[in-house]
Amino acid sequence: MDFSSKLLENAVYEMSQLPGIGKRTALRLVLHLLKQPQDQTTRLVSALENLRSEIKFCENCHNISDLPICEICSNPRRDKSLVCVVEDIRDVMAIENTSQYKGLYHVLGGKISPMEGVGPQDLTISSLVGKVKQGEVKELIFALSSTMEGDTTNFYIYKQLEGHEVNTSTIARGIAVGDELEYADEVTLGRSILNRIPFENSLKAN
Ligand SMILES: [Zn+2]
Questions:
Q1: Greatest extent of the chain over all pairs of C-alpha atoms, in Å
Q2: 118-143 pLDDT, tens per residue?
Q3: Residues 103 and 82 sit within 8 Å (Cβ to Cβ)
Q4: Distance CA 143, CA 147 (A)
Q5: Ligand 1 centroid to residue 71 C-alpha, Å
Q6: What's the pTM value of the predicted model, to 2 decimals?
Q7: Cα(63) to centroid of ligand 1, in Å?
């Protein structure tokens, strides 16, 4: 792509670093911004800057939060004895949208994946195990996607918790194996949380 302006070229290059944005789309977006009032670009830039400089991760559940403890964890009406284990914040958003779940979450930050070089130490598993050891958690609900990595991660955590007084369950799936949680529709997902099954049973089924 031949640019008549270095400024334009730089802006297009930075925009094209985003996933799913090729050079052509980047050019279209940048030219669009140029046509809009300067205000719009200023607001976009400061929203992103503020996001990067002020965002926190909840000290309890590792969810993205504006405060050291997120709104879900600090809500007195949530059931602290129930913890739903998810991969990332998109899963928290999907489950919150169902309005069916009143417990807390634990965001792992990914799944164990030897292929991608992700081991247990790269995730927030030890913090989860620590939480269970403190004794307030009565049930862990595994809600990772039903892929091999998801199953491996569930099983790893399950083994880490052997000998501790905690029930483990897994969400009942009305969705095909390999479907990611964030794409499940709200009714199906809500039902699958209510109809969760003991984790041991899901092992026998395999
Ligand atoms: Zn939290």
A1: 67
A2: 999 999 999 999 999 998 899 999 99
A3: yes
A4: 11
A5: 7
A6: 0.79
A7: 5
